[in-house]
Amino acid sequence: MQQGIMELMWRSSHVSGSNVHYVEALYEQYLDDPSAVPDEWRQYFDELPRPDDGPSHDVPLTPVREQFHQLGKQRRTALAPAAGDGEENRKQVRVLQLINAYRFRGHQKANIDPLGLRSQLPVPDLDLSFHQLAKQDLDTEFQTGSFFLGMDKAPLKEIVDALEQTYCRSIGCEIMHIVDTEEKRWLQQRFESVRSAPSFSNEVRQHVLERLTAAEGLENYLASKYPGTKRFGLEGGESFIPMMDELIQRGGGYGVKEVVIGMAHRGRLNLLVNILGKNPGELIDEFDGKKVIERGSGDVKYHQGFSSNVMTPGGEVHLALAFNPSHLEIVSPVVEGSVRARQDRRDDSDGTKVLPINVHGDAAFAGQGVVMETFQMSQTRAYKTGGTVHIVINNQVGFTTSNPLDARSTEYCTDIAKMVQAPIFHVNGDDPDAVLHATQVALDYRQQFKKDVVIDLVCYRRRGHNEADEPSGTQPMMYRKIKEHPSSRAVYAQRLVEQGVLSEEDAKAMIETYREDLMAGNHVANALVQEPNTSLFVDWKPYLGHEWTGHADTSVPMKKLQRLAARMCEIPDGVEVQRQVAKIYDDRRKMRAGGMALNWGFAETLAYATLLDDGHPVRITGQDVGRGTFSHRHAVVHNQKDGSAYVPLQHMADGQPRFTIHDSFLSEEAVLAFEYGYATTAPNDLVIWEAQFGDFFNGAQVVVDQFISSGETKWGRLCGLTMLLPHGYEGQGPEHSSARLERFLQMCAEHNMQVCVPTTPAQIFHLLRRQVIRKLRKPLVVMSPKSLLRHKDATSSLDQLAEGRFEMVLPDQANLEATKVERIILCAGKVYYDLAAWREENGRDDVAILRIEQLYPFPKEELFEAIEAYTNVTDIVWCQEEPLNQGAWYPSQHHMRAVAEMLQEGLGGRLKFAGRPASAAPAAGYMSVHIEQQRQLVEDAFNL
Ligand code: AMP
To answer: Which of 167, 106, 96 has the alpha carbon at shortest distance from 133?
Structure first.
């Protein structure tokens, strides 16, 4: 590690300019306080001769060591106490306050807007007079305190110049909200030591120009070939491409092996072609409207994801650009989930090897709540990914909204990031050198501190929201300015020519070379690896191309079941278990021994134990999942002695797969999106999100609509995510009764997902196992029970776990004489137990009750098999607890009618409904109304 950083710092031509100063600063800090510098640097400095070692030291000094040696001496001399009168001391304090003011508010004066439209109010704290200093003091020498000027004393003029250069040029630094002193100092040193403008080598700057040329070249090419066609071009924000190039290359140098990127439309095609290496020919096909995938709906070109490998100084790096819907910012937590899955696969617990980069738009970053949720998850146990590099492509306008009075209440669009104390660098997109510096510091910070960091790339959109739009209708002043404004590339090329970095001809030749490559259909991402190392990412081949099947052998030999059941109930001696929890574990031991019928919690836990034993990691998150909303799970046992947690399923066997269970923070949207991202990256795992109450998933409706239900058909991305949604009418009112089954069923088509309503412990056992044992990967939506967790009849036997399978239809359980049956009641879920109880009480042997345990894909054959013996049936009823306009009645009745028709011509047309009357709310708020409605619908099922 030490070697790696040193190599990076001293050898990389990208960084040599800035880091000499940076290392000097660190060394100074080390001399003051060795514990204040990172470990690897401390070890390195420890080996250096101390400044007071004297000439007799027998280790010959290298030039670098010599430099440190001198620096130490100077430092000691400078720290000698200064003499002076009282006024001098007071002025000294004011100078330090001035330095502090620049650190706090310099960004407000910085030149970060290429268009110069940013309204900048005066910042009085940056005036000498504000600090009772005057022009006459400019020549007086003052101590510089912690300001890294390279000397401990300097004339005030020099101090002010350095502060202006550091904090008020092309980078506006917001770091003073960070409370951790080490982090703050580290950041200050990175900027102050080089006045926020390191001198990059000619080679580096030529490379930046080349990447800018690529960024501009692609847009020019597409604009001339497809004028007026929507592509959400990058024009105005071209510096984004050298920025991404640097992040990936430098990341590779750090040993990063995978980079996962999330971003919205703007600049996406540019990233795809110039960074990820998508073949320009493929893009052209998409512009020509060719169908590029055989199955599914496909998606527009600026939503497409991509994967490739590129070469970096640290070796090959795998890049994945996540597929993205139009719903802004929702892809961020998806990216985080995918990154976490990759980190888990690599046992990369601190996130060194997989880097998330989320690219945002300014308006959406300020406006979308999911951004806040994503920041909130960034340091939590369940969701952290070792820090994310956030880039805001800040066009200073959201579609047609640019007036800050309408767009937001915060000063910057990035202010939300301060909630996690992320450093924020606002950088002028027309100053690619500054962009490069901000990028390097951002990545170094992430790798050093494993926390989120934000680069706000302040730019503009040359052609409006998209190329079919006329922006001057709504932004006349801005677009008048843009019309006259030269491109970032033109500005930079001219600067480099003026500074003698390259000739005008060389700069022009870059444009030609790029265009020729594009026309020839060559790849234009210069680091692209043509034959990628596939071991860098998950192999999805075993899971591809499977047709739908509801059947899988999920049985488990009895001996193995008993062994695992015994193990999952073991709690070590030192763990003192709370009384009610102890009873649950005692009962589980009895269930295992055959002394008690199995309940839901036992079967569910045993399903996890068996899957772990089969080599499948299990991950469960959601609100209160450790215990379970209704106290049935208790997968996490809290030691009453010291509050520590013990998770029996993590102690099943040596070397077992990972069992992860975490209570989530109180979010549905970001959390569900995260788990979607995880599940689409970890095909071998059982990944579960559980809602506290089923209807709360609607806080994450975007994730269901845009990803879970449609990701496979739009993008060919398979997903085996399981959602456990507590559902059932038990008088808890409009909000805690329904998981809005109808919404899921209405979205079902083309076998896109499975919607199941298991009613016995054995059914949930086999259903969870089926989800992973089959190679088919489809989202599974489970309407999971509440009262059934403890219902006396909702039990199973160990034999049913050992030998059974998930039954998509459960036939009638009473021993009816088939020919006597005149009515069939079809139902799903908890109402079955109410119906069965009513039938028994009323002695009705002419009515069969069948449970449809899988509502989609609808099990037509299985249902027919279960009813075909009832040859004398005269009518058929669908009974549901939900109101008429909800539940399965509308979305599924055509399937039921079709099966009824198979049994008897005309029977399908006579399918009746028994349930609550149509209602705007899912359920009544009064227990008495609930009870009456429930009684009525059960009675109706028999007597209608
Ligand atoms: P990634 O690491 O996400 O870039 O994925 C690498 C490759 O694995 C992709 O190019 C796909 O071929 C395949 N792949 C990744 N995720 C999925 C998925 N959810 N479903 C199907 N194939 C996938």
So the answer is: 96
Residue nearest to atom 3 of ligand 1 (CA): 320
Indicate which atom in ligand 1 lies nearest the CA of residue 544.
21
Q: Is residue 307 lining ligand 1, measured as CB closer than 6 Å? A: yes
Residue 540 CA to ligand 1 center (angstroms) comes to 6
CA angle 49, 52, 53 (to 5 degrees): 45
Contacts of 289 (CB under 8 A, 6+ apart): none
Q: Where in the chain is the domain with CATH 3.40.50.12470?
A: 558-727+738-803
In this structure, the residue with its CA closest to atom 8 of ligand 1 is 540
The CB density around residue 926, as the number of other CB atoms within 10 Å, is 11
Cβ atoms of 537 and 320 closer than 8 Å: yes
CATH 3.40.190.80 for domain 809-943? no
Q: What is the tally of helices (H) and strands (E) in the chain?
A: 32, 24
pLDDT bracket for residue 17 (50, 70, 90): very low
How far does the centroid of ligand 1 lie from the alpha carbon of residue 717, in Å? 7
Radius of gyration of the chain (CA): 33
How many CA atoms lie within 13 Å of 436's alpha carbon, on the beta-carbon side? Answer: 28
pLDDT at 44: 62
Question: Could you tell me if the CB of 718 is within 6 A of ligand 1?
Answer: yes
Residue 817 CB neighbour total at 10 angstroms: 9
pLDDT confidence band for 195 (50 / 70 / 90): very high
CA dist 161 and 313 (Å) reads 37
744 CA from centroid of ligand 1 (Å) = 25
Query: What 3-state class would DSSP assign to 638?
Result: strand
The mean pLDDT value for 452-472 works out to 88
Q: Looking at the chain, which residues constitute the CATH 3.40.50.11610 domain(s)?
A: 809-943
How is residue 215 written in tokens? 């960024």
Q: Is the dihedral of CA 624, 629, 635, 640 positive or negative?
A: positive
Distance between start and end Cα atoms, the chain: 76
Please give the CATH number for the structural domain made up of 202-289+302-458+490-528. 3.40.50.970
Q: How far is CA 642 from CA 380, 579, 584, 585, 646, in A?
A: 22, 16, 21, 20, 11
What confidence category does residue 307 fall into, taking pLDDT thresholds of 50, 70 and 90? Answer: very high
Residue 227's SS3 state is coil
Alpha helices (H) in 47-134, listed in sequence order: 63-78, 86-105
Residues with Cβ within 8 Å of 52's Cβ and at least 6 positions away in sequence, in order, are 72, 76
Considering the chain, tell me which residue range(s) the CATH 3.40.50.970 domain(s) occupy. Answer: 202-289+302-458+490-528
- Whether this prediction's pTM lies above 0.85 is answered by yes
DSSP assignment of 844-878: --SEEEEEESEEES--HHHHHHHHTT-TT--EEEE
E strands, 680-770, are 686-690, 722-726, 754-756
| Domain 558-727+738-803 class in CATH | alpha beta
Question: What does the pLDDT read at residue 70?
Answer: 55
Alpha-carbon span 655 to 330, nearest angstrom: 36
Residue 429 CA to residue 433 CA, distance in Å, equals 9
Question: For the chain, what is the mean pLDDT?
Answer: 91
Q: Which residue of 307, 319, 684 sits with most ligand 1 atoms within 8 Å of its CB, as the best mutation to test the pocket?
A: 307
Which stretch of 59-68, 285-294, 617-626, 688-697 has the lowest confidence by average pLDDT? 59-68
Measuring CA to CA, how many Å separate 84 from each of 76, 137, 354, 845? 19, 15, 54, 106
For residues 199 and 868, what is the distance between their CA atoms, to the nearest angstrom? 83
For residues 783 and 757, the answer to whether their CB atoms sit within 8 Å is yes
Q: Is the CB of 680 under 6 A from ligand 1?
A: yes
Angle at Cα 885 formed by Cα 883 and Cα 891, nearest 5°? Answer: 115
